[in-house]
Amino acid sequence: MWFSKKQAAVPTGQITTKRRGDAAEALACAYLTERGLRLLERNFATPGRGGGEIDLVMRAPDGTLVFVEVRQRSTASHGGAGGSITHTKQRRIIFAARHYLMRFATLPPCRFDVVLVQGPTRPEGQQTMEWLQAAFDAS
Questions:
Q1: How many other CB atoms are there within 10 angstroms of residue 61's CB atom?
Q2: What is the C-alpha separation between 136 and 139, in angstroms, rounded?
Q3: Which residue from 30, 74, 79, 109 has the highest number of Cβ atoms inside 10 Å of its Cβ?
Q4: CB 114 within 8 A of CB 71
Q5: What pLDDT sits at residue 62?
């Protein structure tokens, strides 16, 4: 017997993990745009299972291609937002970046940045944002 997995309807006022993540990405994108970066692509994912995803692909004013990972956590427990970027997560981002770079005949300079969004997810709460440039590398 086969069972279909139905997705539960989310009440309009309820904030899901996906919604929090999307909101954090939007905040990070606006923050980086204000600082001179230009958005090229959002949520770039490699095809198939086991690949990687890049939250934001941006271009810095000097021409550097910037692959941005956005991490959001409501509290600093368990290492906070920064503590959630494991070696495995970095490898998946690097894998996706290599896939993205296949579209270029000449490779531009690149770096991997991280934007940490920390604090309550409710509108009345105070969130902090930290931009870590060249947070890790592909070596």
A1: 9
A2: 9
A3: 74
A4: yes
A5: 97
Mean pLDDT of the chain: 81
17-136 to CATH, choices 3.40.50.360, 3.40.1350.10, 3.30.830.10, 3.90.190.20: 3.40.1350.10
Where b means 16+ CB within 10 Å and e means fewer, 12-48 reads eeeeeeeeebbbbbebbbeebeeeebeeeeeebebee
pTM: 0.79
Q: What is the pLDDT of residues 60-85, one digit of tens each?
A: 999 999 999 998 865 554 444 555 67
Q: Which residue reads 């991490």 in tokens?
A: 71
pLDDT value, residue 14:
57
Closest Cα to residue 42, out of 54, 60, 59?
A: 54
- Closest to 132 measured CA to CA, from 89, 81, 61: 81
Distances (CA, A) of 114 to 103, 123, 133: 23, 23, 7
Q: Which residue has the higher pLDDT, 3 or 30?
A: 30
| 132 CB-contact burial (10 Å; exposed 0-12 / middle 13-18 / buried 19+) | middle
| Cα angle for residues 123, 130, 63 (degrees, 5° grid) | 120
